């Protein structure tokens, strides 16, 4: 029961103590003759739940210079979709651009998705 139980407990924790965030899906249209970006369209999905980890100077990612203090790691349930680099997450009236997405798999089931973001 150990691994499966732990993964499911993490997913349940997101529902119980997670913060409400909005996912902004970003799509770009390009001019095929000049290969320049022409328009950006967005669509929002509201009321998603995620556990929020605000990075501080004590975090290794900040020490290594990969991220800055104030950037955020969001933890979503494994069933969440649309979490791809380039999309944005609105939290506390600020947008954070998705940089990396890691699916945390246990016993062939994705229970949690780790989303590393940078403040826009």
Would you give an account of this structure?
- This protein has a six-stranded antiparallel beta barrel.
- About 20% of the residues are buried.
- Strand 1 and strand 2 form a beta hairpin.
- It is globular and about 50 Å long.
- The protein starts with a helix and ends with a strand.
- It has one domain (about 1-120): Bacteriophage SPP1 head-tail adaptor protein (Thrombin, subunit H, Beta Barrel).
- With about 120 residues, the protein is an alpha+beta fold.
- Helix content is about 15%, strand content about 55%.
Provide keyphrases for this structure.
single chain; 120 residues; alpha+beta; Thrombin, subunit H; six-stranded antiparallel barrel; 2 helices; 6 strands; globular
**CATH-level-4 superfamily name:** Bacteriophage SPP1 head-tail adaptor protein
Mean pLDDT: 88
Task: Give the C-alpha Rg.
Answer: 16 Å
First and last CA, distance: 41 Å
Helix content: 10-25%
Molecular shape:
globular
* Spatial sequence of strands, sheet with the most strands: 1-2-3-6-5-4
Work out the helix count.
2
Query: What are the secondary-structure elements, in order, as H or E?
Result: HEEHEEEE
- What is the annotated CATH architecture? Beta Barrel
Q: How many independent structural domains?
A: 1
DSSP strand tally: 6
Assess the beta-strand content as a share of residues: over 45%
Look at the helices and sheets and give the structural class.
alpha+beta
CATH structural class: Mainly Beta
Given as residue ranges, the uncertain stretches (5+ residues, pLDDT < 50) are none
């Amino acid at each position: 029961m150990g691994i499966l139980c732990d993964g499911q407990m993490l997913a349940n924790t997101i529902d119980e103590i997670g913060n409400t965030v909005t996912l902004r899906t970003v799509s770009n249209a390009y001019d095929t003759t000049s290969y320049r970006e022409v328009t950006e369209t967005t669509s929002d999905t509201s009321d998603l739940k995620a556990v929020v980890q605000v990075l501080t100077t004590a975090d290794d990612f900040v020490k290594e210079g990969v991220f800055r203090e104030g950037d955020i790691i969001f933890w979503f349930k494994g069933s969440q979709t649309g979490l791809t680099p380039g999309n944005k997450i609105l939290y506390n009236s600020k947008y954070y651009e998705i940089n990396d997405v890691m699916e945390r798999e246990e016993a062939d089931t994705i229970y949690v998705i780790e989303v590393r973001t940078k403040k826009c």
